[in-house]
Amino acid sequence: MRSWQGPILGFLLLLVSAVPALSAPPVTVHVLAEPSPFSDVFVSSLTQELPNNLRMVDEPEAADVLVALGDAAFSGALVHGKPLLGIYVSRALSEDAERQGCQCAAVWAGVSLLDQLRMVHTMMPLARRVGVVMGTNSVWPIEVVRRHRGAIKLESLPVNNARDLGNTLRENLNHLDAIVLPVDDALLGPDAAKLVLLTSYRQRRPVFGPDLTFVNAGSVASYFASGSDLVSEGAQRLHYFANNRQWQASSFVVRPSVVVNEHVARGFDMRYRTSGTLQDALQDARALP
To answer: According to the lineage, what is the superkingdom (predicted)?
Structure first.
């Protein structure tokens, strides 16, 4: 009799302990965002990617967790006092909210400087001096640039406003191999984009970053956070929260997308001239020990 009583008792105890987890209701989620075609697609795609222990609801009052798309939605969502995940939110804004004690985290706007530098090195293996434009609202703190150690030597190019941008570039481009731009909507608007790209092209110095829009306008290439990247990152972080009741640390998208301006890459005689070949090369570089 005793030979089977122990295993049976252990199985019954395991079954009883599993009942609360099996019967726990899903964590409810609501997305706050400014109305736009992008936000509509984002909400629809995120809803489809949510696992069974998460469920989308129509009203923020009914949600256990809020997701805020963009700075304005993130700032507005803080008043609800609920666990909050920001998507494509300014780094400074999310860090300030966390210092104030919110139960929040964010997927920052833009991509990491290390990712962009990895791309520059892959396309320009002989590049040694790279300038990093730094505005007051840029996503990369000046400390990140100063602490960087590697084959590429970084030089910070502080710019207070868009009016100073042209002079800063003209004064520094000649002794640099390339320029890397951060995501900074206040500094790098449409007029600034035209100025940066024309100046760099005249002085035969390629510009990398900060996103898909700039690459379409004439930047050589960039990592960028695509809509599908943001959806996947958001779903993964929500799943983690549902299981652990705490957020993962705020960061950029872990696996961003890549885009190359083929015409500009060819004009600068770059090593990789299509998005597909560059993506493959970067994946191979990540796989190296």
So the answer is: Bacteria
